[in-house]
Amino acid sequence: MSTPAILCAPLFGQDFHLSHEERQAARKLVYQNRHDPALKALFNLLERSAYRLQGEGVQAGATAHDQGQACGALYVYGLARAWLEVKDETPSEDS
């Protein structure tokens, strides 16, 4: 199995191959801190960006690039929202 391409350098030097337990612990940490003002501000930034990109992706004359950005942003937004709203759910490979 080859290592997936990394298009952006990780800000905190994270390991992209987490165990189930590590993913579960990360999700629990986010959920426990969902009322932290910094986490709310970061989520609100993500939410505004995703909605802006979604709006641009459905405009007349939108390119495939615009639509792809909207799709990717909404996918990440959905993951973040699930981590903030759902206390305990069987995580998928991405969550």
**Low-confidence parts:** none
Work out the helicity level.
55-70%
Question: Globular, elongated, flat, extended or rod-shaped: what is the shape?
Answer: globular
> How many helical elements?
3
Distance between the termini: 21 Å
Strand-residue proportion: under 5%
Q: What does the radius of gyration come to?
A: 15 Å
Look at the structure and give the mean pLDDT. 88
Q: What's the number of extended β-strand segments?
A: 0
Largest sheet: none
Order of helices and strands: HHH
Helix/strand structural class: mainly alpha
Question: Which SSEs are present, and which pair or pack?
Answer:
Elements: H1 20-32, H2 37-57, H3 64-85
Helix pairs in contact: 2-3
List keywords for this structure.
globular; 95 residues; mainly alpha; 3 helices; single chain; 59% helix
Please, could you describe this protein's structure?
It is a single chain. 59% of the residues lie in helices and 0% in strands. It has 95 residues and is mostly helical. The chain has a domain at 38-85. The longest helix is centred in the C-terminal third of the chain and has 22 residues, at 64-85. The mean pLDDT is 88.
Summarize the structure.
With 95 residues, this protein is an all-alpha fold.
